[in-house]
Design a protein that fits this description.
The complex is a heterodimer of chains A (about 110) and B (about 200). With about 110 residues, chain A is α+β, with helices and mostly antiparallel strands. Chain A folds into two domains: about 50 residues, no CATH class; about 40 residues. Chain A contains four helices and five strands; from the N terminus they run E-E-H-E-E-E-H-H-H. In chain A, strand 1 and strand 2 form a beta hairpin. The longest helix of chain A is centred in the middle third of the chain and has 14 residues. The chains are: A alpha+beta (about 110), B mainly beta (about 200). The interface between A and B is medium-sized, with 28 and 31 residues.
Chain lengths: ~110, ~200
């Protein structure tokens, strides 16, 4: 058994487990995936696989922003936390981020 | 189907129920209904699970992969024509790899096609099984709209470390459609078709 990619519009639409006999008889184009790193969403053009990271959506960016705020809550409540002022600025930048031109592509820079 | 005996008929000649026949798929193949099944009404029960998602890391946290979608139900077939069955692969190789969808092309034999989606990072909206969660997400197993848990099928992956939330599964069991933690491969899907004839 092996992994086969279902190719549609030059993209790996799905990956299934199959053998060669099934792959030959299947109605859609199946390509044997010899590299485990190839995943759904890869491009397949002229026999070559490649991958381009899809742009982050506004919803995904907000989810990330919210996670960042919650995970740094304890810093705001720890007066002697190292470099705390920079973290507070970072948290404010996170809150302001959705209303800036940087949103959603460029994330605020996390303090060291 | 109105009652239990519609699907579990008494064996001909009396003397108790018949023995169910079944076919299981852990890799893609073809389900061909027997003529005896079609003659008996063509009714089958199916169970289908998509492949699980491999867990991932990000922003200092570890995310369990989402389990594949789980479906079970009944279908009535009208011809003994082969139906393609595909088994979605589990996410492998790199963290965050989505699971593949499993499907049964019942329409070849007069039924309706069934697809169980693979688990993906968009588990909150795409009907995939519940995935492991970060501690900040606020999503809990009890409130998940897509539980996907049925005897472990389609379960979400556990986060890599104990301080992150996870579905409890670290290493996905083979052919259960389970998501995995990061750095581990998720498991592929599964199909079982059961019938009497």
């Amino acid at each position: 058994m092996a992994r086969y990619g279902i190719i549609k519009n030059n993209k790996v639409k799905d990956i299934i487990i199959a053998d060669a006999d099934f792959a030959e008889s299947y109605e859609q184009e199946l390509i044997l995936l010899e590299d485990d790193l190839i995943k759904i969403g890869y491009d397949y053009i002229d026999g070559v696989f490649s991958y381009t990271e899809p742009p982050i959506t506004g919803e995904q960016a907000k989810q990330w922003r919210n996670n960042e705020l919650v995970s740094t809550d304890f810093i705001a409540q720890t007066p002697d936390y190292p470099n705390r002022d920079a973290w507070l600025i970072y948290r404010q930048e996170l809150r302001d981020w959705p209303s800036t031109a940087d949103f959603p592509e460029t994330k605020p820079t996390k303090p060291e | 189907m109105s009652n239990f005996t519609d699907f579990f008929p008494a064996a001909s000649g009396g003397g108790g129920g018949g023995i169910p026949k079944y076919e299981e798929f852990t890799s893609s193949g073809t389900f061909t209904p027997t003529q005896a099944l079609i003659d008996a009404g063509g009714r089958v029960a199916y169970m289908i699970v998509g492949g699980g998602e491999r867990g991932s890391t990000g922003s200092d946290k570890y995310y369990g992969g989402a389990g594949g979608q789980f479906k079970s139900g009944y279908m009535t077939l009208t011809s003994a024509t082969g139906c393609a069955v595909t088994i979605g692969a589990g996410g492998t190789g790199s963290d965050g790899a989505n699971g593949g969808s499993s499907s049964i092309v019942f329409s070849s034999a007069g039924g309706t096609d069934i697809t169980a989606l693979g688990g993906s990072g968009n588990a909150h909206t795409n009907y995939a099984g519940y995935g492991g969660e970060t501690r900040t997400s606020g999503w809990q197993l009890a409130t998940s709209p897509h539980p996907g848990h049925f005897g472990g099928y389609g379960g979400g992956g556990g986060a890599l470390y104990a301080y992150d939330y996870g579905g409890g599964i670290s290493t996905a069991e083979a052919n259960m459609g389970q998501g995995s933690s990061s750095a581990r491969n998720a498991s592929s899907g599964f199909v079982r078709i059961t019938w009497f004839e």
